[in-house]
Amino acid sequence: MGLRMNTVLLLAMLFSSVSAFVDELSDSFMEMKAADDIWLIKFYAPWCTLCKELDPIWHQIGSELKSVGSPVNVGKTDATINTGLAKEFRVRNYPAILMLKKDVKYNYSGPRTKKGILDFVDRVGGPVVRSLRSLQLFQHAMIQHDVLFVYVGATSQLKGNFTSAAEELIIHTYFFSAARDVLPKGVSLPFLPAVVVFKDGTFFTYSEERDGDLKLWINRERFPNFSKIDSYTLYAMGESGKLVVLALVEEENLHEQSLRYKRLVEKVAAGYRETYSRNFYFGFMEGNDYINGLVMGEVILPSLFVLNLSNDGFFLPPSTIETEQHLLDFLNGVLDGSSQCHGGNGIIQRVRRLFYNVKVTLTPVFSQAPLLGCFLVGVPLSFVATFCYLCCKARPTWINEDDDEGVALLAPSLQRRKKNTSKKSD
Q: CATH top-level class for 18-120?
C-alpha cells in the first residue's frame, strides 16, 4: 500500500514539474504579457481527440525549450472558454498552434510532431535573416537544411525586399545572408548583390527579369524539386501555385512497379529541371488515404497523378506510363491543356465531397455499431422531415376555406368584368 502511494506521489510530482513548463492562458493574456515576450500557444477544445494526442508532445516541447534556455514561452488555452483570446488569434480549427513575437502572429500549419513544431519555433523565434560569417557556418547550414535562401552582398534595395519577404515567409523556410568570400569556391555569381537558393545539390540565382516578384519566386522555390511528400507538405505546395507530379506508392515493401514509378519521377525531375521546374514539383507519397479523399474513391497503388492543389483538381495519365517519354508526353499534355482535369472545387464537386466525407465517416460506425449509426442518421433526418412538414402545412391558400365566402368576395370583380365586356360588344 505504501509503495503504491509513493508511486502515485512520484508520478504526480513528475507531471507537476512537466506541467510547470506550460502556462494555462486566459482572455487577459494580451493585457498581461510583456511587449518583448515570445509565446508559442496551443488552442484546444476539451472534446478534441487530436488535442489530447498533442498534449504530451506539448509538455515535452515546453520542457525542452526551458532546458536549453530558450526565450520562447509555451502556453495553452481552452478556446471554448477563452473565446476572446481565440478570436484575437482568429482560431478556426483545433488544435491550432501559433506564435506571437513582437505582436506579430505566426500560424503553424505543419505536422503535429515534436520535430516539426520545434523547427517552427527555431525559425520564427530567431532572427528573420541569419548571418553566415564563415565557410564552416555556411556548410553547417547546408547540412541542416534541404533548401537555403541566401542574400549575398552589401546593403541595397534587393536586401530590403529580401528581408521583407523573409518576415512573411519565415513560417515556411530559413533565410540567411553572407559575404561573397564565405561561399564555397565553386559558387560563381555573375553579379552582386544577389539572392541565391541552394537545393538539390546545386544553386540558382534570382533574376527579377526572368523570375518576377522576389517573394513569389521564394514561395515557388522553397521545396526540393523531388522529395517525399506528406499531406501537410502537399497542402503547402498548393500555396506555391505549382502543380505536383506525384508517385503514389505503398507504405512498406514497395512493389517493382512502385519503385519504377518513383525512380521515373525522380529521373524526370532531375533531368528536365529547366523545362518543368517553373510549373511542377515532383515527389512520392506513401499510402493513399489523402488522395482517396481528393478523388472521392479508392486509389489503386501504385499510381501516378498530377495534382492542382489550388482548385483540388487532378490529372490522370491517358494510358499506362511505361517509359520516360510516356511521362514527358503526359506532363506536356497537362501544360498545353490537352489532358483533362478531373475534380475541382465547383459547387457540384463540393456537394459530392460533402456526401463522400459523410459516407467515409459513417461507414465504420455502421459496421461496428449499427444502432448508433441509425441514431446518428435518423435524428437529423427526422428533424428535417418535421421542419418540411410544418413549412408545407403553414403555406397560405388563395381561396378561403369557406367556398361560399370566397365566391362572394370574387363576385364584384366578375360583375365588373362582365359590364366591361358588354360595353365593348355594343
A: alpha beta
**pLDDT, tens digit, 9 for 90 and up, residues 353-372:** 776 666 656 565 556 656 65
Which amino acid would we find at residue 7?
A: T
Burial of 277 (0-12, 13-18, 19+ CB in 10 A): middle
Sketch the domain layout of the chain as residue ranges. 18-120, 130-221, 226-347, 370-420
The residue annotated as part of the active site, out of 48, 341, 388, 392, is 48
CATH class for the region spanning 226-347 = alpha beta
Neighbours of 265 (CB within 10 A): 21
pLDDT tens digit sequence for 256-292: 999 999 999 999 999 998 899 889 999 999 988 888 8
The answer to whether 147 and 221 are in contact (CB under 8 A) is: yes
Cell 388563395 locates to 398
Q: Domain 130-221, what fold?
A: Glutaredoxin (3.40.30)
Does the pTM of the predicted model rise above 0.90?
no
The full 3-state SS of the chain, as one line of letters, equals CHHHHHHHHHHHHHHHHHHCCCEECCCCHHHHCCCCCEEEEEEECCCCHHHHHHHHHHHHHHHHHHHCCCCEEEEEEECCCCHHHHHHCCCCCCCEEEEEECCEEEEECCCCCHHHHHHHHHHHHCCCCEEECCHHHHHHHHHHCCCEEEEECCCCHHHHHHHHHHHHHCCCCCEEEECHHHCCCCCCCCCCCEEEEEECCEEEECCHHHHCCHHHHHHHHCCCCEEECCHHHHHHHHCCCCEEEEEEECCCCCCHHHHHHHHHHHHHHHHCHHHHCCCEEEEEEECCHHHHHHHCCCCCCCEEEEEECCCCEEECCCCCCCCHHHHHHHHHHHHHCCCCEEECCCHHHHHHHHHHHHHHHHHHHHHHCHHHHHHHHHHHHHHHHHHHHHHHHCCCCCCCCCHHHHHHHHHHHHHHHHHHHHHHHC
Candidates 51, 341, 388, 392; catalytic one = 51
Neighbours of 171 (CB within 10 A): 16
The yes-or-no answer on residue 48 being catalytic is: yes
